[in-house]
Write a structure and sequence with these properties.
alpha/beta; single chain
């Protein structure tokens, strides 16, 4: 759970984000949504406080790397040895270059400003790779089909958010089309799907479209 509780107002505007809970599963989704809002709003200088984070997984590491590649300037403080060990095991030592050992927030912000000045990173919002389309939170029932060697797999889902470019679908129920048997899980990444059907609201026509799974991950037991 992200908590923005301290802002250094002198330009560039630096904000501290405190994470409560592990950077795994649902925790990754929450901080990701927060950082996407920062990206959309051009708030690109963030210091993330890991003081209350005891765990990080591969999904959390990939999420941080994604925002770094998009141009967000991130620094990390109070990173515990357990988290550092996972980063080392994942061979993502480049993240250590963004970890400050300083605990005082004012001095940390001063270090960040020095970094930005020396590396000439304070270039403005034009360096940010923002999302092409803003996402809207939803909770819509949906269904779609997967084709695999002529066999149809039916999938029920909830659309958790959507934009012009795609949807986030969760709570998947996967069923074999020929036997009606419910299966526990299936490889979704890069799979093509057809007949994605959902209704945006009670007064609108059902939308039917097709697409491809661009990303797949587990939150607890839910794909």
């Amino acid at each position: 759970m992200p908590n923005t509780d301290f802002i250094v107002s002198s330009p560039p505007r630096i904000e501290f984000v405190e994470i409560i809970g592990g950077l795994i599963g649902n925790g990754v989704s929450e901080i990701q949504n927060h950082l996407y809002r920062c990206l959309d709003e051009g708030r690109c200088y963030r210091i993330i406080d890991f003081n209350h984070v005891n765990q990080i997984d591969g999904l959390g590491i990939v999420m941080l790397e994604n925002f770094l590649s998009r141009g967000l300037q991130l620094r990390f403080i109070n990173v515990k040895s357990e988290v550092r060990a996972i980063i080392t095991m994942a061979r993502r030592e480049s993240l250590f270059q963004r970890i400050y050992n300083e605990r005082d927030r004012n001095r940390t912000a001063a270090l960040f400003e020095k970094d930005l000045f020396e590396k000439k990173l304070a270039l403005g919002n034009d360096v940010l790779k923002k999302r092409h389309h803003l996402r809207v939170r939803t909770d819509l029932p949906a269904e779609f089909k997967l084709l695999d060697n002529g066999e149809i797999t039916l999938v029920g889902a909830r659309i958790l958010n959507l934009s012009e470019g795609g949807v986030l679908a969760g709570n998947l129920v996967i069923m074999r089309g020929n036997t009606q048997e419910i299966v526990n899980g299936q490889e979704m990444l890069e799979r093509e799907f057809t007949d994605l059907k959902f209704t945006p609201n009670d007064d609108s026509t059902t939308i039917t479209t097709r697409g491809r799974c661009a990303r797949a991950f587990m939150t607890r037991e839910s794909l």
